[in-house]
Amino acid sequence: MTTPPYQQQAQAAQPSAPPQPPQQAPQPQGVPGAPGMPAAPQQAPHQPAMQPQQPGVQAPQPGMPGGAPGVQGAPQQSYAAAPAGYTSPIPIRRTHLGHAIASEWTKIKSVRSTIWTLSIMAALVIGIGLLVASGTKDSDYSTTPTTIPGLFGTLLGQLCIVTLGVLVVSSEYGTGMIRTTFTASPQRSRVLTAKALVFFLVSFLTTTAALGLVALASTGMHSGAEVMEPTGKQMFGATVGAGLYVSLLGLLSLAVGSMLRHSAGAITAMLGVVLLPAILPAFLMMSSSLQTLGEKMQKYSSPNSLAALFQIDDELGTGWSQLGLLAGVTAAAFIAAYALLEQRDV
What global pTM score does this model have? Predict the structure, then answer.
């Protein structure tokens, strides 16, 4: 087919372009299965592809951050420490004896043994005291003060305080909660001090209140010309003095319970401390060589000490010497309890 003349003229007027090399059709790069390309080798499952490692960069390891199987991990990064000015949002305070006292108060008021023991003690002191006061006449108080009825209930009520003093510390050893207590408060002497303070206040206030109620009721029941009205000193000894004596006896029980760490053993030992000085003098005074020892033991026994505090007989004294002896024995027992508490394991 010939080219028309007008097209030949137009082509002659245009400059001739340099010849271009023949172009080939582009081929797909890296696509397995494409025509003219070899198939890519199949990799084993769950194995990461081998990548060229750059100089100075450590390859991630399995089990490390960024080293999960099948995923190319990022290089390890060092975790920076917390800044020096970091402040914890939780308030941090130094512990003191007040915290231990609050803890022991929570313990002693939340267990049923405390309520039952103190209730039985108050029922014995008040019930027996009012029973004696109502069964006596005005002439019975011609030589003795009207506060005497409180003595009879205190002789039995003191055994309840002795039992409670042992249970305050020995019950934690029996249940194993003493380990938790010492973990929360590693200073063991602070724990024992807090127990002693809380127990002393609870026992002293309860016993003194019960004795005061009996003294006031008995004084109101018996009045007249032939009745010996109690003086301020006699009223103080029959209420505060007797309450202090019973509370110190309970503190002695607490120290014995801390040393023995066994409820039954400590209660049995304290019953011997309370009852033995009242029974043994009768046998000691049968011998002339042991008569003086028997008389001293009888004077400082628990029944005679309480009777002296109630001032039913001038020969027994005012009872403050017996109270001082009990305080000294209690202090010695606590020194031994503190020493054993620091040396022995829980």
Answer: 0.73
